[in-house]
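Q: Could you fold this chain for me?
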Amino acid sequence: MRRREFIKLIVGMTVTPPLAVLAQGSMPVIGLLSSQSSSGYAPLMAAFREGLREAGFVEGQNVTIEYRWAEGQTDRLPGLAADLVHRRVAVIAATGGVASGLAAKAATTSIPIVVSAGLDPVEAGLVSSLNRPGGNVTGISWFTTELAAKRVALLHELLPDATDVALLVEPSTPESAAQPRLAQEAARQLGHRLFVLNASTPGEIDAAFAALLAQGARALIIASGPFFVNRRRQIATLAARHAIPCIYGERYAVADGGLMSYGNNLTDAYRRNAIYVGRILRGDRPGDLPIDRSTKFELVINLKTAKTLGLDIPATLLARADEVIE
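A: Sure. Below is the predicted structure, expressed as structure tokens.
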């Protein structure tokens, strides 16, 4: 082989993109499917793009993202997923809960799917195994239901005399609906009564606050789930108006005026979701990528809100806090 031909061969091998990229031309397309809205998830989308950069992909430079937001209306997810399949995206990042993942899985058996979900993906029917998912689905799970009991315990540590507390649940969201059982058991062991209140619309959140006041509940636990992430400002406003201490599952609620949160670091989870997306774009098969279990937890406390509520945060809680907002 002549020297010039040899050099051309080597250069060609160096710049040849991965198979998934070839399928989409020079710039692969990621379909991002979410049950929620772009405004409520801006910090998580920033983390997603950071993960893509770590994997070697920058939106607008060597990858395109097609966004499909259900705006809290989960019945729209199947149509949005079908649209991404019709668009022939290279991979679908199904975010905002189990519902997005199930809609994507129902829409295609060939396009790789990377889910972000708070439930056990095996129990949810997304994959057959955590270690070897098989099929076209893999992703990140933070098993949020297991943290419901911990939030009850933290609320008790903050307010040991508050024996009547409430739990706000979004019943149509699998992650949220699975939490009352564990929370009830934790409350029973502490000698507390726990009232379960349901809300699926902004109006029902208002009604839930009226109900907990009527029942004499002195504190509120907000079940983890994408709906309440989007409605965090409404909840924080109502909590301040009625002087109800609340503990949330996500730090974003505390940053927007909530009192306290304990849960997985969702920023880290979305970053890791994007890294999996990048690996698939580079040729990894989703069925061979084990479910990445997010185990990075964070306790966040807003001292300004505590002062507004007239609460003294115990030193033991402050010492354990990962972040204190002043």
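A (continued): The two ends are 70 Å apart (CA to CA).
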